[in-house]
Structure formats: structure tokens, C-alpha cells
Write a structure and sequence with these properties.
globular, homodimer, alpha/beta, TIM Barrel, 3-stranded antiparallel beta sheet, 346 residues, 8-stranded parallel beta sheet
Chain lengths: 346, 346
């Protein structure tokens, strides 16, 4: 699902987003609570009306951004004290607050508050993060007061399969509407991530959504689908789009490159997105070259449509029992990214 | 008509632009010739295909930007030597080059190359600019080699009515498909501009378009319509939109203001644009507040639609012989802008 950090999928209108085939979007609780605040969103009728998105919305708990963006002052079993990355304000986030804020925002799916340690990470820190995440998940369930919002728990435990399985079982005992796998795509290799996904997904109930947070590259998504994951979110389609990187089945295109100066083909010949229907690579390159906003917008639209087509084809091939064909149709799904994979969430 | 400086109306897709009611757009020859160059645009099938705009396009001659943006090295009766504002390259623009470049770009309407002196301006400089503009206009007509492109002459002469009339008569003798009034909105007051428009427009043929270049604010447009002008271009809808200033019939809104924090109304209650159909002022304010691209895009879309509605209503009231009612329906049309009016062309 496309990520809308502070209440919009960057550079793309809801109408354009809907046309890419996207149905569900993600809002970041941390960003929304700093600006404009959950109280303002609630006063304006909740996140759906505020953003003008009539499809499902998921909000994260805010924990990931607190641990990755904010200045952490203190983490205890009760929560986190931190400073806003915007104005340095001293703030607290814990299970109760994360749930109250998400209740106010009013998304369809809300996430339990968890501790997400960076990888690599020693066993003691991991174990403490798992215990806190389980404790906080229970507190979130108790604090949750809008039953029409689904509440998902988040499995932590880094690359330690035993800890992951323990965490998953504890969360299943508490009982959630869906289960997320957190704490991946935070510095580990593709192989490390792939190796733990299968065992984790196996423990999770097959009749509830299994959601891998913040992933990712087509190769990572394919590995996760093979492990049994159902649901993803990622900023890559829009972030890479804004940075002039276009996804295609054959591999990425860097649209600022001189090689596209006279290239009158679209990003992808068989793509039906608004950008591919109307514009040449040469035009897109020109837009980036002169700093026109339309370059980021059109490339984001294409990338969003690319991911929708990729996932739709994966679903078809699963039903046809022919998932291996995906790497023939989408060679990018087995390509190693040629740059250091940046942290995929903001 | 909305202005697309370097091959796009900034931040707005052709589909969004069409939905505002816009039919004709303007491309700046100076910007397009610097990047990507007219040869590249021609190789890619011309400006319509390059930008994916199937409505009429007008290109200016490039002269205005040379005189306002570039470093001028030398102006003679043969043309202008200048330096690119992008990379300092030494370049020449004259009647023949301006016409050849516009023939390559392939717009529906192209403009004669003229000299546009800043105001105030002494009589001798004005007179020289008029004589050169007339000479160059003739050279443009001779150089023009694509008869399917309409060629417009441009009346210069500053605030000197006698010079303006002389210039207009000379251009009419040469014979053009339409006549533009240039060299206004370059530092003079509203009253000064309004005072010369009537006499100029009276000299111009009623059966050809009369086009006031680079104007402007609703008040200026109304004065020009009253003088007999048929056609306008301006960057204000999109430039002001990017700067968080929204046009409404009742006057401008500065969307960053605190007063809109909880305002759940659209820009204008009776506006049918994509922004007003879906989003509150509070949401637009939030987008600008957090630096989301969607703020400039949605405000530009609204402003473009505002101008289309304003002009459509002017046309209706002219036919109903009731143009004076426009200031009741659109009080902004008699408001004095509360800021120094910036130079309206880029």
C-alpha cells in the first residue's frame, strides 16, 4: 500500500492514486500527531475526510518514526520520551497515547505500539524489545475504544527466529485482527530477511492478514510473498519517483540520464498508467532537468501503477500455481539493487 | 491562457488542466530553446506531442525573457546578443532565429520578435524599440515558413498613445493573423495601463484577436476587456498557487494563515474544481505547512479554474450587455492588490 506520511501520498492526488489501482493507504501517526495533530484531524471529520480518501486507511503507531527520526531521551517499560524532529518539543509516546491518537485519526486499521531496535542488535536488547512490544500490545488492546477499527499486533525479535516465534505466540494469545512483522528492512541483508520470514509467517494464523511493514524492493516483496506474507507498505514508489528513478519490469530507469534525451518511448510500453499513456522518457527527463514538479508527479504515478501491476500479477500466478514465472515476466524481481538500499520508511 | 514556461504548466497534468476548462496554453520559446532546445522538441514530434497537449498552443518569441532574465550584451537593429541565465552561454536572438525556433516548436500561434523596454522609459528609447519591433515583425513574416501556424504582431510604444497607434498601423500594413499588445505589466500602474489600452485596441482590426500579453490580475483583465482586448496569458494562477495564494471571487486567501487551521470549507463554496470538490482549507493549509507538493498542485488547479470561471462569466455578461455586474459577482475584480504586483511573466 502507498505511504502517505503526513496526510497525503506525496505529489499525487487521490484521483490519480485511485487510477493506479491502489485501494489502501498508510498514514504516519508520528507525522500527523506533530502536524496538524490528531485533534485537528478529528475535528475535521477524521483522516478519510481530511485526505479525501474513501478507501481503507492504515495508521502506524508512531513508534518507528520515534525510534528512527526523533531524538530519544528515555525508553522504559512504560514508553518513550523523545524530542520532535520539527521543533525539539519534549513529548511522550506509549501504548495508551499511540492508541488514543490512532482512535482519533480514525483509520480502518491501527497498529499496536512496539519497540523497533536497529539491526544488528544484541540478544538482550532484542529480548527486551520483544517483551516490551508484547506488554505494550496488550495495553493497546485495552486502550482501544473504537471496535470498528481493526487492531494489528507487531512481531519483533530481529533475526532471532526463536524470539520471533515467541513474540508471535504471545501476540496470538492476546488476540489481534491481523499480525504485522516489524523490525525488518532496518539494515539487514535480503538473505537475512528472507531467512526469518518463512518461520515467522508459519506461526501466524492463516485466516488473518500477515503484514510485512516497510518492505520494499520487488525482490524483497517476492521473497516475503513466498514466505506467506499478504500485505506490504512502502514509500519506494513515490520516494524513488521524486528522485527520478522509475521502476520497470526490466529494471530501474534513472530518468535524468542523457540516454533518454531523444527517447520517445514511455517508461514501459505495456504500462497503462497516466504517465505512460501520454509522455515520453525524453519529456520526463526534460521535466527533471528543468526542475518541474510534474516530473516527480508523473514518475510517482508510474511507479505506483508498476507496484499495483506487479502485485496483481503475483496474485494471478499464485492462483495459477505458477509463481516462479514472475521473475521471467518481471526480471526486476530477482535483481540486486545497485545502490545501498536506503531505509525504506520515513 | 495558462502559461507553461518550459514545456509544462507547473505542477498540473494536462488532464487536470483540461478539467479546469483551459483550452489554450503558452510555451516560452526562450526557456524551451535553452532546454531541451527546439531541435529536440521537433525530433520528438513538436510541442503538442512533447507536452501531451491536444489543444491550441501559443509560443512567445523569446524576446521578453531575453530582455528580463538574460544578461544583455548588445542590442542592435539586427537583434540581441545575450548570455543564458542557466549557464552563461553566449547566444543571439533575432527575428529570423525567433521565427525558425517557433516553426520548429510547432505551436498553433507564434509571436513576432519585438523589443520590450522596461517602464518608465524615455521617448527616444521607446521610439527606437517601436521602429525595431516593426522592422523585426516584417522580418518574422518573411522568415515564417509554416503557414498553418498563425503569426501575431506585437504593438510596442510604452505609455505613449501616439507611438502605440503608429506601431499598430505599421503592423497592420504588414498584415498579421492577430495583434498583441506588449510592453505592459512591466512596472506601470493599473491606471496608466488602463489609460492606453482603449486607444490601442481601437486601432486594431476587430476581426482579428487582440491579445494583451502577460496580464494579469482580475482588475487589470477587466479593464482590458472593457478596452476591447480578447485574449490574455498569465502565470498568476499557478505562480500564486505555488506560493499558497488562492484566488476567490471575494478576494485572495493566504493559505498558510493560522485562521484556516480548522476551516472545513473549500476555497470557494460554489467552485466545481477538483480541489474544492474534495478538500478543506484546513487540509490545504496543512499541506503547505508540512511542505507537501500537493498543496501547490491543488491551489494551482483551483486558481486555474477560478480564472476560467471569471472569464466565462465575463463573456456571458458581455453578451447580456451587463458587464458592470461582474464586480458584484467578483468583488476581486475591483480590488487593489495588497502587495507590490510582481512582474507577471517568467
Amino acid at each position: 500500500m502507498p505511504v502517505g506520511t503526513a496526510g497525503s501520498v506525496k505529489g499525487v492526488t487521490p484521483a490519480q492514486l485511485r487510477e493506479t489501482g491502489a485501494t489502501m493507504i498508510l498514514g504516519n501517526t508520528y507525522h500527523l500527531q506533530l502536524r496538524p495533530t490528531a485533534d485537528v484531524v478529528a475535528a475535521l471529520g477524521g483522516l478519510h475526510r481530511f485526505m479525501n480518501w474513501d478507501g481503507p486507511i492504515l495508521t502506524d503507531s508512531g513508534g518507528y518514526q520515534v525510534f528512527s527520526l526523533a531524538g530519544i531521551n528515555k525508553i522504559t517499560d512504560d514508553g518513550v520520551e523523545f524530542q520532535s524532529h520539527i521543533d525539539g518539543a519534549h513529548l511522550t509516546l506509549n501504548a495508551r497515547i499511540a492508541t488514543e491518537v490512532q482512535n482519533k485519526l480514525g483509520a480502518d486499521v491501527i497498529m499496536a505500539f512496539d519497540e523497533c531496535p536497529p539491526l544488528p542488535c544484541d540478544r538482550e536488547t532484542l529480548e527486551r524489545a520483544v517483551n516490551r512490544s508484547v506488554k505494550w500490545a496488550g495495553e493497546c488492546k485495552d486502550a482501544h475504544n473504537r471496535p470498528e477499527q481493526a487492531l494489528f499486533g507487531i512481531v519483533q525479535g530481529g533475526l532471532d527466529v526463536e524470539l520471533r516465534e515467541h513474540c508471535a505466540r504471545e501476540l496470538i494469545d492476546i488476540g489481534f485482527d491481523g499480525y504485522a512483522i516489524g523490525g525488518l528492512s532496518v539494515g539487514e541483508t535480503h538473505e537475512q530477511m528472507a531467512s526469518v520470514l518463512g518461520p515467522i509467517a508459519k506461526v501466524l494464523p492463516v485466516d488473518k492478514p500477515r503484514y510485512l511493514m516497510g518492505v520494499g524492493m520487488p525482490r524483497d516483496i517476492l521473497a516475503a510473498v513466498r514466505a506467506g506474507v499478504d500485505m506490504f507498505d512502502c514509500v519506494l514508489p513515490t520516494r524513488n519517483g521524486r528522485n527520478s528513478n522509475a521502476f520497470t519490469a526490466a529494471g530501474p530507469l534513472k530518468m535524468r540520464n542523457e540516454q533518454y534525451r531523444l527517447d520517445d518511448r514511455p517508461f514501459e510500453e505495456d504500462c497503462d498508467c497516466e504517465a505512460c499513456r501520454g509522455f515520453s522518457r525524453a519529456y520526463i527527463r526534460h521535466l527533471f532537468n528543468v526542475g518541474e514538479m510534474l516530473g516527480p508527479t508523473l514518475t510517482s504515478i508510474h511507479n505506483l501503477r508498476f507496484y499495483q501491476r506487479f502485485m496483481a500479477r503475483i496474485r494471478e500466478l499464485i492462483i495459477a500455481d505458477d509463481l516462479d514465472s514472475i521473475v521471467t515476466e518481471f526480471p526486476i524481481a530477482q535483481m540486486v539493487p545497485d545502490e545501498n538500499k536506503e531505509n525504506l520508511c520515513t
